[in-house]
């Protein structure tokens, strides 16, 4: 029945499969790529690169569209977010321009700028002052760059020379300087 060497070849794959626990680990180590030298005889294995973050102090950045300055912000500290989710700011002072003149000034303790959505989110002691003398206080404020709109939904207080108002939400349009105050609005005039 079994005549010749040809009939014994079926034993070779069987012996390789059964002997794998004895030589498999050493064979895998032998076939693995060598470690990458880094320098000064230091060697490390290749690993996926970790996400890199950065932190900067005393930062000023600005947004220009077609050579016209739209807004400028100063921050005491700026750090990048994980996964490219934007920048986190501390001690924010922002200035918004209309017709190349400063129109609105905003200060806040903390902020976040999302580049993908073009939204500047400010929170904690947010103060806004516009060129007409109106001032606004709130705990959180968003600037929607594409719309040219400042918005708050957490309660706002607005005051001017002869008027004071409170409301639950506010939309302020930088293009024409128009306010929309809504949600349980209290309006007071000062004689």
Strand content: over 45%
User: Helix fraction?
Assistant: 10-25%
Overall 3D geometry? rod-shaped
Uncertain parts: 40-48
Known CATH architecture of the largest domain: Sandwich
Please state the average pLDDT score.
79
From the alpha carbons, calculate the radius of gyration and give it in angstroms.
Answer: 32 Å
Domain module tally: 2
Task: List its salient traits.
membrane, 191 residues, rod-shaped, LPS export ABC transporter periplasmic protein LptC, two-stranded antiparallel ribbon, 2 domains, lipopolysaccharide transport protein A fold, single chain, 12-stranded antiparallel β-sheet, mainly beta, LptC
Describe this structure in a few short sentences.
The chain is mainly β. It is built from 1 helix and 14 strands.
Give an overview of the whole structure.
It contains 1 helix and 14 strands. It is mainly beta. The chain has 2 domains: 7-34, no CATH class; 55-189, Lipopolysaccharide (LPS) transport protein A like domain (lipopolysaccharide transport protein A fold). The strands form 2 sheets. Strands 3, 4, 5, 6, 7, 8, 9, 10, 11, 12, 13 and 14 form a 12-stranded antiparallel beta sheet that branches. Strands 1-2 form a two-stranded antiparallel sheet. The termini are far apart. 16% of the residues are buried. The model is unreliable at 40-48 (pLDDT under 50).
Write the topology of this structure.
Blueprint: H1 11-31, E1 36-39, E2 42-44, E3 55-65, E4 68-80, E5 87-98, E6 101-114, E7 119-130, E8 135-144, E9 149-152, E10 156-159, E11 163-167, E12 169-173, E13 178-182, E14 186-189
